[in-house]
Amino acid sequence: MKSFIRLIHAASVSLSIAAATTHAVDWTAGMKEGNPGLRSMGPLAFGPEGILFVADTRGAAVVAIATADTVPAAGNRPVKVDGINQKIAGLLGTMADQILIEDLAVNPISHNAYLAISRGRGPDAISVLVRVKSDGQPEIIPLDRVKFSRGALPDAPAEGVAGPGNRPGNQRQESVTDIAFYENRLLMAGLSNEEFASTLRAIPFPFESVGRGTSVEIFHGAHGKFETRSPVRTFVAFKVRNEPHLLAAYTCTPLVEFSMDELKPGAKIQGKTIAELGNRNRPIDMIVYHKDGKDFLLLANTSRGIMKIRTDQIERTESITTPVKAERQGLPYETIATWQGIEQLDSLDAMHALVVRRGDGGSLNLESLDLP
Amino acid sequence: MTPRPASWLAAVVIVCVVLMACRPGPSARGQNFSGASVRVHWRRELSDTNRFVLEVVGLDMAALRQFQDRKPVPWPRLLAAYADTGDVRVDVELPPMVGTYRVQSGILRFEPGYPLQPGIQYRAVLHPDQLPGGRSSLVTATFKLPAQFSNPGTVVSRIYPSTEVLPENLLKFYVQFSGPMQRGHIYEHIHLRNASGRDVDLPFLEIDEELWNPSRTRLTLFIDPGRIKRGVRPLEEVGSALQEGQRYKLVIDSAWRDGAGSPLRETFQKEFRVGPANREAIDPTQWRIDPPKKGTRAALQLTFPKPMDHALAQRLILVADPAGRLMVGDIGLGDEERQWSFIPSQSWRGGHYQLVVQTTLEDLAGNNVGKPFEVDLLEPVQQRLSNSSVRVPFEVR
Questions:
Q1: Which terminus in chain B has less CB density within 10 A, N or C?
Q2: B375 and A227 in contact by Cβ < 8 A?
Q3: A60 lies within 8 A of chain B by CB
Q4: Structural domain harbouring B263
């Protein structure tokens, strides 16, 4: 969903912070070569050195794939691929209505776009990884012989196993709403199809033999004085007061700040609500960018368009702890009216975002847009 | 990959081979075409009769070997297959299907990377002029498996909670289907309709990933938490999705397609009335326990004062024997999720048993054991339960 994490510092965006802390690590340690056997493909995120993380919820795992796509992009070229869903359907021998674009992630090194695709919508659907280079032609990435490693989702019950009590099948399944890589951890937000509890996890990478990870139940105080357990929809990592934080967007639509240091096994952490962005809305994707000496968040939504959110007051923003009466409160933002129909969003380069947006006639287009 | 040349529209030679999916046989081919004795046809794979491959017979092998000397071999320039959309303007822009090419025993074979689908017309295009000395005319073969609706009888078999009176702060529904369903854009098929027949606007938490069980026969449908809590701004503005005293219907539209692509056999409606909100934590000490007699395999029966979550009540309530070991047996739910029963695989012995209840158990409003769905932050923290399970003793005599 988002490529390599952009970190906001009080003064400047600092990709270099992440890079500086990661140079000595062998990121492919423990990887083996073969077919990772993905059973599904959910959210995507890039880590260092062209490593692509893929959430496989049906396989109850997150998979790191070394794409070897590590040649730096030569300049910034605009991208415009009309009917990307039709073209991918053509490659896969099916119709566009049988193609679901699960997520988009841009390789921050090569600027190539990666799309998690479901070919088919039924139980026998096939997950496919598609890459779009600067020539605009989608290509299938074969996964039968790649370097990869797997991290098991913590606490995910093994499919088909009945525990004590002969529980009738195993109907539980974890869903992942967003993933991101930060320094040496894969961060993951999700919820289950049974217990109503939003979780954030930090899974160390390279994955250990069984990635136990950490599980954190999240509460926030945005809804008056009551804690809630609404799921995190999308998030980014950033630095406030030089400390790593997560900025998470929830349904209807608080922005909540969490200290990353509090992500500890079993901990319950309370976030600080730094903005209320309006109700009856669902955030889709969020990115961070730097422009004119300032850092901004760009948040794509289902019904409130694209929000450009200033962060220069993030350190001084008071936590919102009482019911909000105004249309909006907290960090100021402007709505970018010209960006319509956005369904996927990621950073392309320093000047552009890459989006999947719905165009005329319902077709989906992949295109780069100037960052506002 | 090679873009399809628009010139195929002017193809001088077209061969249509239509195979019926139900027709058995290792190799079906239509009338042959001989454009300088080259034939293109689709055939059923011998080793896997669900797969079809494309074959070209009669190519000049010497010319083909010369073509293969190019690295990488530009196979799609010579032979390509396309999934036609029926719209020529779209089709001319489509890339060819991915797959593997092989030359064996004088036959050029293309194996599609993904199985052909019923109802789609596949077009193979051979460009003989890509071979040294080849003719300029195209050879085209189309193929279509008839659309199949193998399981037109999928229905909504049940919606949980079963009870007809639901709390105003209901947290979720489970929609149980009789077979696997298609995912993607599902929320357009789900309606919450009030007594005057109007749809409640955006009552559900719409999640792109969709909350299915592994076999994709059960969908979890959360009410948007912003529409069920006190003090939440959307609630103040637009009211809760469900209002006490009102009647509603949860409608599952028959246009929703099942895993085989067929619409549901019928639209399903669950009618219900809305009662007061429930904001009380679950208290297992209030459950009525009817212990079985020792020496039998009779059911242990629990009766809850209010219905429990259908899925969680079957997974998060366990029984420990006098030695503290979790017991194996069959769990059932009845009386609209107010009754829970456990039949052990081995006879009860006399002694002190325990119910082991995970605190993440939920009632219909998402209240947990020891903790209501909403927690007032001003209340003392000590009132919250920190253990992951509670134990309730009972005796078998």
A1: C
A2: yes
A3: no
A4: 156-275
Q: pLDDT by residue (tens digit) across B316-356? A: 999 999 999 999 999 999 999 999 999 999 999 999 999 99
Residues in chain B within 8 Å Cβ distance of A225: 231, 376-378
Domain co-membership, B161 together with B108: no
Q: Are residues B265 and B319 in the same domain?
A: no
Distance, CA of B38 to CA of A94 (rounded, Å): 28
Tell me the pLDDT tens digit for each residue of B79-105: 999 999 888 888 888 999 999 999 999
Q: How many CB atoms lie within 10 A of CB A197?
A: 17
Q: Which of A138, A167, A279 sits opposite B226 (nearest CB)?
A: A279
**B324: domain CATH number?**
2.60.40.1220
**Min Cα separation A280/chain B (Å):** 7
Point out the residue among A165, A175, A225 whose CB comes nearest to the CB of B209: A175
- The band of B375, judged by pLDDT with boundaries at 50, 70 and 90, is low
What pLDDT is stored for residue B89 in this prediction? Answer: 82
End-to-end CA distance of chain B: 76
CA A357 – CA A104 distance, rounded (Å) = 11
Q: Which of B249, B275, B301 is the last residue of a domain?
A: B275
Question: CB A252 to CB B83 under 8 A?
Answer: no
**Predicted confidence (pLDDT) at residue A314 exceeds the cutoff of 80:** yes
CA distance B57 to A294: 65
Which is it for the CA torsion B317, B323, B328, B332, positive or negative? negative
Q: Does A338 touch chain B (CB under 8 A)?
A: no
Of A83, A228, A302, the CB nearest to B229: A228
- B171 and B100 part of one domain: no
User: How is residue B77 annotated by DSSP?
Assistant: H
Number of domains, chain B: 3
Q: Tell whether A272 is within 8 A of chain B (Cβ).
A: no
| CATH, residue B112 | 2.60.40
**d(Cα A41, Cα A53) in Å, to the nearest integer?**
10
Report yes or no on B127 lying in a domain.
yes
Give the nearest chain A residue to B261 (CA atoms).
A122
